[in-house]
């Protein structure tokens, strides 16, 4: 009970010993209110992992006339054209290693965040639930940013390579963006309660909320 009160004081930044306003019942109602979003976050994280892993093993990140290539291949040329193959590098460029590393980083940390979110679902004490959900949300955001950076580096490097002509981005690249977006959705769902609480403290949101409250009061009168 003491740990619960201390946790609530920390989360609400209240030093008063009176927790009737921010007490256990308040947070229990809050947990029930945000539960559908967190369940959707679990679905989003599972989808993100599947999409990112599928993207990593997919062999059609880029394709064109007579060729296609995945993330692990370093020769994006028409293999039937001897002159084109002569432009192929002997090993993967540094930018490609960076893209692979960032995608693996996103998948690994996304899996870690998924474990934390499942701990939040299976844990009973509310403070621990909130801790697991918010921690998972932060890590999902990092995974989303990591995958997004990788997916921005890849086309930038391809477009600067003048030897690769007449190309299009394929299914593997699109799957990567799908995984990044689902990671972002999972991050928002896991931390939505904290996002709403923090945004309600800003002056702009307070003014909007006061305006809506005044309008409702006038309509009632």
Automatic annotation (TrEMBL):
<protein>
    <submittedName>
        <fullName>Uncharacterized protein</fullName>
    </submittedName>
</protein>
<comment type="similarity">
    <text>Belongs to the TMEM47 family.</text>
</comment>
<feature type="transmembrane region" description="Helical">
    <location>
        <begin position="99"/>
        <end position="119"/>
    </location>
</feature>
<dbReference type="GO" id="GO:0005911">
    <property type="term" value="C:cell-cell junction"/>
</dbReference>
<keyword id="KW-0965">Cell junction</keyword>
<dbReference type="GO" id="GO:0016020">
    <property type="term" value="C:membrane"/>
</dbReference>
<keyword id="KW-0812">Transmembrane</keyword>
<feature type="transmembrane region" description="Helical">
    <location>
        <begin position="139"/>
        <end position="158"/>
    </location>
</feature>
<feature type="transmembrane region" description="Helical">
    <location>
        <begin position="170"/>
        <end position="192"/>
    </location>
</feature>
<dbReference type="InterPro" id="IPR015664">
    <property type="entry name" value="P53_induced"/>
</dbReference>
<dbReference type="GO" id="GO:0098609">
    <property type="term" value="P:cell-cell adhesion"/>
</dbReference>
<dbReference type="Pfam" id="PF00822">
    <property type="entry name" value="PMP22_Claudin"/>
</dbReference>
<feature type="transmembrane region" description="Helical">
    <location>
        <begin position="37"/>
        <end position="57"/>
    </location>
</feature>
<keyword id="KW-0472">Membrane</keyword>
<dbReference type="InterPro" id="IPR004031">
    <property type="entry name" value="PMP22/EMP/MP20/Claudin"/>
</dbReference>
<keyword id="KW-1133">Transmembrane helix</keyword>
